[in-house]
Amino acid sequence: MKSLKKAIRTLIYTPINFLAKVRLRSKIKNTPNKLQIIIGAHNTKYENWHPTNIDSLNLLETASFQHLFGDKKVSRFLAEHVFEHISYVDALIALKNCYNYLEKGGAVRIAVPDGFHPNPEYINMVKPLGFGEGAHDHKLLYDYKKLSKVFKEAGFKVNLLEYYDDQGTFHYNEWDSKDGHVIRSKRYDKRFNEPLGYSSLIIDGIKE
Q1: Record: fold of 32-206
Q2: Checking DSSP bridges between strand 74-80 and strand 36-38, what pairing results, if any?
Q3: pLDDT digits (tens, 9 = 90+) for 118-141
Q4: At what angle do helices 2-29 and 62-69 cross, to 10 degrees?
Q5: Helix (H), strand (E) counts: the chain
Q6: Cβ-count burial of 182 within 10 angstroms (0-12 exposed, 13-18 middle, 19+ buried)?
Q7: Taking the complete model, does pTM exceed 0.85, yes or no?
Q8: Which residues pair with 76 in a beta bridge?
Q9: Which residue of 3, 96, 97, 173 has the fewest C-beta atoms within 10 A of its own C-beta?
Q10: 3-class DSSP state for residue 145?
C-alpha cells in the first residue's frame, strides 16, 4: 500500500516539478540584467530575484549549476537559514560551486543562527537538536569565525554584516536589502528588541 501511494505521489508531482524547472531555466536564460538567485526557498518572492530549492539547484552538484545556468553568470546568491542544515564539508563544496558560477565582483549572502549569541535560550533553540523550529535538522552552529573560514577556503573575501563576537558584543555594518533581503535580522525581525534578542549571523562572501 505504501509503495502504491508513493507511486501515485510521484505521478502527480514529478510533471509539476519538471514544468517548474523548465520555466525557471527559461526565466534565467531570458534575464537581461543582473541574475540574482535565492537558495533553498522556492516559495520566497523578491523583486528581481529567482527562488530555487534542491530540486532546481542542488548546491553539491556541479551538473545542477550547469543545467540551470548554462553559460550565464550569477550576480548574487542569497541563502537565509540554509547552510546550518548541511555539514561544513558540504558547505565548502556548495560555496566553491557558487564561486565558479559567480561573476567577478558578485557575492553570496548567507544568514544563519549565530553561535556567539549571548542568550543561552537562543542557543538552545537554534543549536543542532535544539527546541526551535527546524533545529532537529541543524548540522552545525556557526559563529562568525567558522563561517568566515569556510568562505575564505572557497576563495571569497569576507564582509561581516551582522554578528556577535566571542565576547558577546553585537556588531552591525550597514547593508542594502536590495543585495539580498534577510528577514531574520536586526533590521527586519522585531524579536531582536524582545528579551530573546533574536538575530542572525549575516556575512557576504565576495568574489574579487
Answers
A1: Rossmann fold (3.40.50)
A2: parallel
A3: 999 999 999 999 999 999 999 999
A4: 50
A5: 5, 7
A6: buried
A7: yes
A8: 36, 107
A9: 3
A10: helix
